[in-house]
Amino acid sequence: MGDNRAFEFRPKESPSASKMVAKLVFRWAVSFAGFTLLAVVLISQSSASASTIVTRPTAPRHVTAAAGTNAAIISFLPPSSNGGSRIIDYYVRVFPRNPTGPALRRCPTTRCSIPGLNNGVTYHFTVAAVNHSQVGIYSRASNGITPKSPVPSGPTITFNANGGSGVMPNETEAYGTAAALAINAFSYSGYEFTGWNTAANGSGTSYADGFAYVFTASTTLYAQWIVGTYTVTFNANGGSGVMPNETKAYGTAAALTINTFSYSGYEFTGWNTAANGSGVSYADGSPYVFTASTTLYAQWAIAVPAGTSPGWTSQNWSGYVLTGQPGGYQSVGAKWTVPTINCSSVPNGHTSDWVGVNGSSDIPGLFQDGTSSSCDGGNQVDVAWWTDQAESYSEQDLYLVNPGDDMQASVYQTASGQWAYDIQDLTSGHTSSAAEAYSGQGLSAEWIAEDPASASTGQLFPLADFGSVTFSDLSLQVTGGTWYLPTYSDAWEMVAANGTVMTLPSQIVGTGSAAAFTVYYESSG
């Protein structure tokens, strides 16, 4: 590549008495690849001779101020005219004047800091340009600014468990602003949290949990504790009445309130932490130490009915059996509620409730319908059924029912001489009825709670803890249309082979369709 360069300085005209003008001409030629580029630059400059007139610079433009801490930041544009001489400096006047600072502040550029101001005082500023000859015209006053002290960094609140346990993160808040304290997450066995304090022993400043406060410095807050209390709640567990809760100091022995609940047909036997009695037992009125709030459930045992003892005993029946009616019994019926059995108490227990005829006659045997409840794998199973002993001793299942369902059942003789069963679940609406080829004469009538036997072995199942079952709306149909309620001497008590009382029926109360009696569970033998 070729390179050919030329430089020329040539005065264009001679200086005159009034003006000297110098013109500098640069000629730049570059040749490469056969081409030549020629650049000519012409610069004019007025002579700075003694005959040149220099004036004051005009005022700087657009002076603005911004506040700092004990200082201000000044910004502006240069003047539109430098007065014929280069600007070498700027002067800044401060209003009001700071007694401890100079009257004028030097500003070598169009943006500079003015230190030494007082925080909280409002200031204005004017600016003048300085050339080689003199100070220029001062600008208009800037906007007013007020320097402020720096905002301290946000305080940190440190939470101390003060004997308790757990973790709470520190809390950093904006300086001087109200912020809610974090909710206490510490715990202390046997103690109750009462709030925060700046001293571990509570002698400092107290703060409520979760409330908003203004902090201006980092602080440690100590959890405050007092000896805790526990509450004992008494539950009637099927009974009636009211007992107030009992509140005692943590870890101290206190006597339980004497029971005031009642339960018709039951006797109070004590308290337990579980409704079914499977928890911890406590005697009535005895002192105990609790370390946590507790609910105690009243425990009940079936009371022995008042009056004379029943006239009959059986190892698997309990209730009433009627015999001796001239012409026999043409129908028998009742209502009852499917009981809730305690499968924890008797895990494989069974029980049946039914009405029927010919239970005391061997020929042709029972005709009956009712419900059975049993424990299967710890769960209660309930079914409605009927049976004709003359055809099959085992019950014939009809449909499932549930604990608490209200049942109505009857067996009766039809106009053709057959016998029919009818059993209704009044709660769910299920019903089943049919006439069967049964030739019995209805020599007896029964309302019975039974401990059934296994169809395969003939052995009695363990009697389920059914609590109690009430037979109501007792009905009978006899020849002549008149029948009388049986007396307690007609009742059957269930007694185990070892003599243990398993169930006990009550006397029949009421008259007509309002007559009722209850069979109470005592033990499984």
Structure in words:
The protein is mostly beta strands and 525 residues long. The protein has 5 domains: 1-52, no CATH class; 61-131, Immunoglobulin-like (Sandwich); 156-227, Immunoglobulin-like (Sandwich), CATH 2.60.40; 229-302, Immunoglobulin-like (Sandwich), CATH 2.60.40; 312-521, Peptidase G1 (Jelly Rolls, Sandwich). Helices cover 0% and strands 45% of the residues. The protein contains no helices and 37 strands. The chain has strands spanning 21-32, 35-46, 61-67, 72-77, 87-95, 104-106, 111-114, 124-131, 156-160, 171-172, 178-180, 191-197, 206-207, 212-214, 219-227, 229-235, 246-249, 253-255, 266-272, 281-282, 287-289, 294-302, 312-314, 317-323, 329-337, 350-357, 367-376, 379-388, 396-401, 406-413, 419-425, 431-436, 444-450, 468-478, 491-495, 501-505, 516-521. The strands form 8 sheets. The chain has a 15-stranded mixed sheet that branches. The chain has a 5-stranded mixed sheet with strand order 10-9-15-12-13, with no helix packed on it. A hairpin with an 8-residue loop joins strand 19 (266-272) and strand 20. The protein is rod-shaped, with a radius of gyration of 54 Å.
Write a concise synopsis of the structure shown.
The chain has strands at residues 21-32, 35-46, 61-67, 72-77, 87-95, 104-106, 111-114, 124-131, 156-160, 171-172, 178-180, 191-197, 206-207, 212-214, 219-227, 229-235, 246-249, 253-255, 266-272, 281-282, 287-289, 294-302, 312-314, 317-323, 329-337, 350-357, 367-376, 379-388, 396-401, 406-413, 419-425, 431-436, 444-450, 468-478, 491-495, 501-505, 516-521.
